[in-house]
Specification:
The chain is an alpha/beta fold and about 400 residues long. The protein folds into 2 domains: about 5-170, Phosphoglycerate kinase, N-terminal domain (Rossmann fold), CATH 3.40.50; about 185-380, Phosphoglycerate kinase, N-terminal domain (Rossmann fold, 3-Layer(aba) Sandwich), CATH 3.40.50. It has helices spanning about 35-50, 75-85, 120-125, 125-135, 170-180, 195-205, 220-225, 240-255, 295-305, 325-340, 350-360, 375-380, 385-390, and strands at about 15-20, 25, 30, 50-55, 85-90, 110-115, 140-145, 165, 190, 215, 260, 265-270, 275-280, 290, 310-315, 345-350, 370. Strand 16 (about 345-350), helix 11 (about 350-360) and strand 17 (about 370) form a beta-alpha-beta unit. The longest helix has 15 residues, at about 35-50. It is elongated, with a radius of gyration of 23 Å.
Length: about 400
């Protein structure tokens, strides 16, 4: 897989640039620009190389139909401001566009095609659709790692028809993920949260042979607390999950990986409640576990101090209520502290975790923060991503 920085002859070339600009919208307002901000280095690099850029991206899931509310128009405007460049949004049917028509004069540097998922051919990876897209440019660049678990036309099939490269952000994602899965500096610890063990079981199974510690927090820890013989009250839980938990513990016993779960918790009677610290044997039938307790926080901090590499995916509690945000905040603060003294390499992923770090204004204090979502998780499961395979 080659980075676009390795291509020496870019002058006057047309670049078909696949981005993931699928940002949260409230009407025509963008509520979180993290994904846009992360791809600016690739755009600025290409601009510096005197190229013409044709941006392909999507918003939402229009399922092959034109939905005005899912137009890229507000994103196009946001990019214009951030790049100080005019960007023309082309709403014409892409199948009727000729490459010669895209740029009307030499001063135009960037155009953006309307939501690529307005076309059913995109998601079925249609070869002819990809071939037509390829006629618009000289070189293809994928800087949408977060879409690269999808075998879509602008991710997969397109690479058969153009010289293909990864963008700067794509490359950073892969390098960061390799550091926590292949080129590991041990001891390595994974802090993993979320609501369901079943959705993360393949990640846990894939990481157990490679990691020294897997710390399970959030809603998915409730089932483990229950499995170990404790009452969890009205807390979030999955049914028929004991066999999966048994597999996790059995696999960890055949390796040097420790499975760690909360030793005390913060409970409330509802999501708006104020928190109360409880030992596991003190949880009452009407309690809801909503955060980790101080003993657990201290234990996790101690493990972080003894780790050289950290992967964090999923908050420790219901951080939307400040009463139940302390566990996640303390984990973030400890990782940041060790990062600043160059004691660890830290990778963070997952929408909720990124939202938490945004609220703390601390994304910059981690070595790498991934916004890739599904692609990030599937890579951790050990799956081959179509976008990476295509570029290779």
């Amino acid at each position: 897989m080659k980075s676009i920085k390795e291509e020496t002859n870019l002058n006057n070339k047309k670049i078909l640039l696949r981005l993931d600009l699928n940002v949260p919208l409230l009407g025509d307002k963008i509520t979180d620009t993290t994904r846009i901000d992360k791809i600016l280095p690739t755009l600025n690099f290409l601009i510096s190389q005197n190229v013409k850029i044709i941006i392909i991206s999507h918003v939402g899931r229009p399922k092959g139909k034109v939905i005005n509310e899912l137009s890229l128009k507000p994103i196009c405007k946001n990019l214009e401001i951030k790049l100080s460049q005019n960007i023309k949004l082309i709403s014409k049917d892409v199948k009727e566009i000729d490459g010669i028509d895209l740029f009307e004069n030499d001063d135009e540097k960037i155009v953006m095609l309307e939501n690529i998922r307005f076309y059913p051919e995109e998601e079925i990876n249609n070869q002819q659709f990809a071939k037509h897209l390829a006629t618009l440019a000289d070189i293809y660049v994928n800087d949408a790692f977060s879409c690269s678990h999808r075998a879509h036309a602008s991710i997969d099939a397109i690479t058969k028809f153009l010289p293909s490269f990864c963008g700067l952000q794509f490359n950073l994602e892969v390098v960061a993920l390799k550091k926590i899965t292949f080129k590991i500096k041990k001891p390595i610890t994974c802090i993993i949260g979320g609501s369901k063990v079943s959705t993360k079981i393949n990640i846990i199974k894939n990481l157990i042979p490679k990691f020294d510690n897997i710390i399970i927090v959030g809603g998915m820890a409730n089932n483990i607390i229950k499995y170990t013989g404790n009452n969890i009250g009205k807390s979030l839980q999955e049914e028929n999950i004991n066999q999966i938990i048994k597999e996790i513990f059995s696999l960890s016993e055949t390796t040097s990986c420790r499975i760690i779960y909360p030793q005390d918790v913060i409970v409330g009677k509802n999501l708006k409640d104020s928190g109360q610290i409880k030992e596991l044997n003190e949880i009452s039938p009407d309690d809801i576990i909503l955060d980790i307790g101080p003993k657990t926080i201290s234990m996790i901090k101690n493990i972080i101090d003894k780790s050289n590499t950290i992967l964090w995916n999923g908050p420790a509690g219901y951080f939307e209520n400040p009463s139940f945000a302390n566990g996640s905040i303390e984990i973030a603060k400890k990782i940041i502290e060790n990062n600043k003294s160059n004691k660890i390499y830290s990778v963070v992923g997952g929408g909720d975790t990124v939202s938490l770090l945004n609220s703390l204004d601390s994304i910059k204090d981690f070595n790498f923060v991934s916004t890739a979502g599904g692609a990030f998780l599937e890579y951790l499961e050990g799956k081959e991503l179509p976008g990476i395979k295509a570029l290779n």
